[in-house]
What we know:
By secondary structure, the chain is of the alpha/beta class. The strands form two sheets. It has an eight-stranded parallel beta sheet with strand order 3-2-1-11-7-6-5-4. The chain has a three-stranded antiparallel beta sheet with strand order 8-10-9. 39% of the residues lie in helices and 20% in strands. The chain has helices at 25-35, 53-66, 77-81, 88-91, 94-103, 117-129, 148-158, 169-174, 181-187, 232-241, 262-279; strands at 5-8, 39-43, 69-74, 107-109, 134-138, 163-168, 191-196, 198-201, 207-211, 215-222, 248-250. InterPro entries: IolE/XylAMocC-like, Xyl_isomerase-like_sf, Xyl_isomerase-like_TIM-brl.
Amino acid sequence: MTIQLSVSCRIAEGFLSKEEASMSFESLADLAVAAGYDAICMRASQIGVQSAPDAVRDARRVLDERGLNVSMISGDFNIVYNNDRGPDCLKNITPYLDLAESLRAPMIRVCIKQPDDIIQAQAAADQAAQRGLVLVHQCHVQSLFETLDEIEARLQAIDRPNFGLIFEAANLEQCGQEYGVAAIERLAPWIKNVYLQNQRMTPDGSITLETWCNGPVTIDLCEIHDSGGLNFPSIFEGLKKIGYNGPVTVHQSAPEDENLTALEAATQTAKFLRGMLERA
């Protein structure tokens, strides 16, 4: 499998704090290169639609100097928080299209919370198509993309070739959904990006997350290369079966383990994932 390995700016964020970056973008880019990644998945904690033009140009320079691509942008904080203002991006998609073009990113993450958002998603996708850009929505709790049935129905309703899915197994597991080979084959027509993060579902987990379909669930975070979490071999088997060749993005927040640096976590994760790709 020839796949672009991408690391999210989330590695420089806390799990529940998505606005304050723990390192500069230049340091993050250096980390990506040192750990063996091909691209960065951009988030507003580093560069978003709120960023000054000079900051965007500086980020592009940093990327070019290091030979890094941008796999996708999440252009504002409301999108990544998945809050009620998340779908606002669909009402005025132009700044997000401009940012994606400036960073040479092929994809833009958006947010859909209510059925009425679907019409705006169609219009935004039509605008994006004029620039050759793709809009994507993540499998995410408290959105219209919680369950496999919902995800398939919403994507069929949007019915735009440039509107696709960020396949994200952890959120599917939180919603009580299957996330292995069968799920990937079912959603194959729409999968444009793959987010990977790891967790252990446990009744006394340290983090409680609310879902619409499955009520509150509790999890413990763990590194992607740790055992006892998601079934990653099943995920990569599914990706191989559908001939997936898009980005695989490490969507892991900053390490919880104080003895593990962000660089160490990113390096170990990249090694683990490249091993998975080679075996697949």
